[in-house]
Amino acid sequence: MASLISCPHCGTRPKEEFFIRGDATPVRPALMAAEEVWHDYVHLRANPRGRIREHWQHVAGCRRWLVVERDNFTHEVFGVTDAAKAGEGAR
Amino acid sequence: MTAYRLASGGLVDRSHGIRFTFDGATLTGHAGDTLASALLANDTLLVGRSFKYHRPRGIVTAGPSEPNGLVTIGSGVRRDPNTRATVAELYDGLEARSQNRWPSLAYDIGAVNNLMSRFLSAGFYYKTFMWPAAFWEKVYEPLIRRAAGLGRTDLPRDPDSYEKSWAHCDLLVVGSGPAGLSAALVAARSGLRVILAEQDFVFGGALLSEAMPIGGEPAYVFARRVVEELQSSPNVTLLPRTTVFGWYDDNVFGAVERVQKGVAVVDATKPVERMWRIVAKHAILATGAEERPLVFGGNDRPGILTASAVSTYANRFGVAAGESVTVFTNGASGYRTARDLAAQGVEIAALIDSRPASGDIAPAGVRLLRGGAIVDTKGRHRVRAVVADRGGFEELIACDAVAMSGGWSPVIHLACQRGGKPVWSEALQAFMAPDVGSGLVMAGAAAGHYLLSECFDDGARKASAVVEAVGRSVSGVEQPVIGEEADPSFTALWHVPGAKSKAFVDFQNDVHTKDLGLAVREGFGHVEHAKRYTTGGMATDQGKLGNINAIGILAGMRGVSPAEVGTTTFRPFYTPVSFGAMAGASIGEHAMPTRRSPLHGWAARNGAVFIDAGLWYRSSWFPKAVEKSWRESVDREVRNVRENAGLCDVSTLGKIEVFGPDAAEFLNRLYCNPVLKLPVGKARYGLMLREDGMVYDDGTVSRLGDEHFFVTTTTAMASGVLSHMEFAAQVLWPDLRVRFLSVSDQWAQMSIAGPKARTILQAVVEDDISNASFPFLAAREVRLKGNLKARLFRISFSGELAYELAVPAGHGEAVADALMRAGASHGICAYGVETLNVLRLEKGHVTHAELDGRVTPDDAGLGRMMGTSKADFIGKRLSTRFGLTAADRMQLVGLKSVEPEKDMRAGAHLLKDGVKPSTINDQGWVSSTCFSPTLGGHIALAFLKSGRERYGEKIVVWDQLRGVETFAEVCDPVFVDPENTKLMA
Amino acid sequence: MAYEYQAVHALDGTIGAIAERRANHLSVHRTTAVAMVLAVPGQTAEAAGILLSSGEFEARFSGPGEWLVLSEVHAPETLAAELSVRLGDFAFVVDQSHGRVVLTLSGPDAARILANGIAVDLHADAFPVGRAANVLCSHLSINLARTGNESFDLVVMRSFAEALVDDLKVMARSHDLSVDFATR
Fold this sequence. Notes:
The structure holds 3 protein chains of 3 kinds.
Chain A: E1 4-7, E2 11-14, E3 19-23, H1 35-43, E4 51-57, E5 65-71, E6 77-82, H2 83-90
Antiparallel strand pairs in A: 1-2, 3-4, 4-5, 5-6
Chain B: E1 4-5, E2 13-22, E3 25-31, H1 35-41, E4 46-49, E5 56-58, E6 70-75, E7 78-84, E8 95-97, H2 112-115, H3 124-128, H4 135-147, E9 162-174, H5 178-189, E10 194-197, H6 219-231, E11 236-239, E12 242-248, E13 252-257, E14 273-285, E15 289-291, E16 304-306, H7 307-315, E17 319-320, E18 324-329, H8 332-343, E19 347-353, E20 368-370, E21 372-378, E22 385-390, E23 393-398, E24 401-405, E25 408-410, E26 423-425, E27 430-432, E28 440-442, H9 452-469, E29 504-506, E30 511-512, H10 513-521, H11 527-534, H12 547-558, H13 562-565, H14 579-583, H15 600-605, E31 609-613, E32 616-621, H16 630-643, E33 645-649, E34 654-659, H17 663-670, E35 683-689, E36 695-705, E37 708-713, H18 718-732, E38 739-742, E39 747-753, H19 757-762, E40 779-784, E41 788-793, E42 802-808, H20 812-823, E43 828-830, H21 833-843, E44 890-897, E45 909-911, E46 924-932, E47 937-945, E48 954-959, E49 964-971, H22 981-984
Helix pairs in contact in B: 5-6, 5-9, 7-8, 10-11, 10-12, 16-21
Chain C: E1 24-28, E2 33-39, H1 44-53, E3 58-63, E4 66-71, H2 76-87, E5 91-95, E6 100-106, H3 110-114, E7 132-137, E8 140-148, E9 151-157, H4 161-171, E10 177-181
Parallel strand pairs in C: 1-10
Antiparallel strand pairs in C: 1-6, 2-4, 2-5, 3-4, 6-9, 7-8, 8-9
């Protein structure tokens, strides 16, 4: 895990200022999507090695939810984006 | 006498003595000594017993890699076990004790292990303490634990304080030898923010024991001048006594500064140790190189030191390791030590060079044995002679010290702590740091440059590159003039064949060559396996001294190159770090922050007993002088609220204000019950689910304006709910035009409950709050008499006629006081969270004791609230999934003890009468219990299979923890006023 | 019965009288008016323009579109009301005068003391005068602003004010620090 994260709003901060929720890739399904799709979204997570996207919240700073793209093996951080902005790209 | 203080020389202050004790004996040293140098000066060679065989051991090194000289320093509560004597700064009154011996260092019973050693081979524990399994816990573990470990720690609380600090710099230089000083100087002169960390209490590193003059002056004088210049630079921070122990992601370094570890009297106002977290744009590791011991028979006898340590003791501390020293070397270093000793007038018994030929020249008059080796040593608690072998001919050479040099290993640990594997250099016969990018580079001996001139050059060069990398221009590079230096090469000698006694590879863990052989033979030849099998490279030492020889020996046994064997994994910490330093100031009352309610002072004045509730300090109950137990107080408070009125601090609830055109829509999606049509001026109970359909939290939603809401959360989930809402707003539905803010701290909030609540409140509130104009669930801003704006909510947790009044936090105490005054004639009382709990339990209201994450709204009897016709809300889809709607789910019920005086406890399980307790027979569990003064008996809330169909049934409440069974009747969870007449009054 | 509601400061009764001001001083403000300004979604630029350009308000960055506004001249209610009027439809304004406690740490060691609990680089080049941010200080999230070379404002949630002052005293253990209410 990174020691420091560059919050797009607050600058470089220690990881202690953040809360990590987990995988940022699942997208909330439409209400009437199949139950299996909902089960996947709520319960199932892949655990890949390498490049991952995670939701981190800058709880001790701006309180924004961020998408941290990082490598869970090398610990390299590729980018940190505001989740609302990251979502725009995904939609 | 053997080891002794030389008549002159060294950087110790000979003008006055420092008294210290070792195992009770009073000895004298000087300022500038380490404990090790002072012990040597007092001819105290025997300092400890080895871990496994309890063999007598002495000092081997003059630095942080010391494997043997581990002592306990201090006494009573200030006692530091496993302190390396070689880095411990001597101070007046220092008390040191040897470890791992009983009854005394000289006569140690455990030494019988040495005689038993043929049965204590590597893997002994794994093979012996296997069967029977029943013995593991009762016999083997206590036995092993008693035998294991080195120093002992104490249980009393550490009286000292510790500190943690952040630091930031352009360049961190680790180590202040020639390369480190040179690098720091160039960076400092070029205007960079520099931190120079040195583990020693004096800056200078190898320069402090260097005999060669630099720029025409002694090396230590040169070092002192450089340090003075650095000290005077405002952009430089010097950290002496600071070990950089770890390299972490993003070039963050962990370092521990021993602020007051080498002092006679601890200044209680200052920390004894400071943990630094250093954020460095760049770092240069100028950590030097470690001299390798040689592995020969009897190489662990006290008086056998590394050659560089012998030189350091002579040059820096003015201490001779012996009167007659045998030097055993495989390279140039031994010759250098011989020169240092000769210059100090110390006799050299022989200079034994394992190489048949070399260009090195022995000092005049010294007997040189080329192509020789030591195969055994003689002596008991100290070396008395060595057995030298040359071409098959053995010779006994009398001496009282041995200086051994097995070549050099760059100190690369930090560079390998983030996954980079060391790289074997055939030319240097050593593992080098991998290329880990420009953030961290090695310089000087740590980069394999063993000549002084190279170290100066390399430090300056590496620093210049950093200066340019941060966009500045290099200035002030000047290299000192030094004389000609000898070729520093050596020829690897991993172990001396034909040892006549145990040849130790790892002194601290008592691993000798035969253990490694056994490991290879039994299939544990992989370097990581060999470590676990032999214990070599474990404990405080982590193989800093011995691993390289172990790798060389394994390579030889397996017939491969050391490159192929590789190293074990490098991890923080480089040297042990105290738990105190890691905890920093976060201990005792500073371990967690305390939150204080704005009504804390009011509660205290009214005699509250406080209780920790998360970070909060909440008023628990308000005892009267005559009351002897908390139950008496709580029973009175409950009765008083039900008969008259009470005032309770509920400021700790989470309070969030929500704004925006889409605020209603947003809340409608967050709560499972409908919010859209909530009228302005009204409050509503709100239930939040998780996406999996389980209840997450409950609270109230009040609409203060069309686009303005005020919601409350439970105290426990306040921060979680805020995060959850932020996730929903920012991640799930960023298109909704909504903004919200936690206003928990802005408002003091109090509950006024009881049949007389309105009368009391009306005395303070300007607005009309009659039942007609302020009915149940009304919520709006009101004005208090005396012109203070407040918010009033007619909501009830107790089941009584009740209100929650919110006023700006600072006015909370005064308003509460005014209400108590106004209520005095109506019998108002203050009540705490215990009474709050009884009141809500009697009314069948749930808390997180019930809403534990496995409960659906229907389980909790709140199924009617679900806005099933709503388009969507969090938890909607999965709340209808299989299993969540099953008829035999456990449902919330009330329980009444059949014998009213018999209590029940939360956590107890429910069983049908007469059945055996088992998982299959489990009918449910008890979530909350209390004594109900209103009903005059013990009651509980519980979850029972198909519970709502079973009112009237008698059931066993089975509490295995206390071994108690209570018989109870299942009933509606609303014990009090099920028709809500009191509530609506 | 007279109704007057004397305001109690979160730190009343927790700070002993001091004999003299030390080299470093932590000053507790009694009556600072504080408001949070939340820009209406989509109106952040407009709200920022009004709030920051006039120079009348001490607005400190809290998060994107969120500012903490401090005033020593306004009464709590008037600050929020005036901001509401000025910002109109561009922002929501929430009075936080009772919800926050404002402290000023000043002195030659101010940055060094804060480094014992704050990870942000407080070198004047990295965190210049006028910069503000929410940061973690020891265990607590605070709003930190540099108000001078050697002075910082710390704004903390009211319920944590006592804990923060306790933490600051520990952080300043190696330095000379006095704590008192501001005289103003």
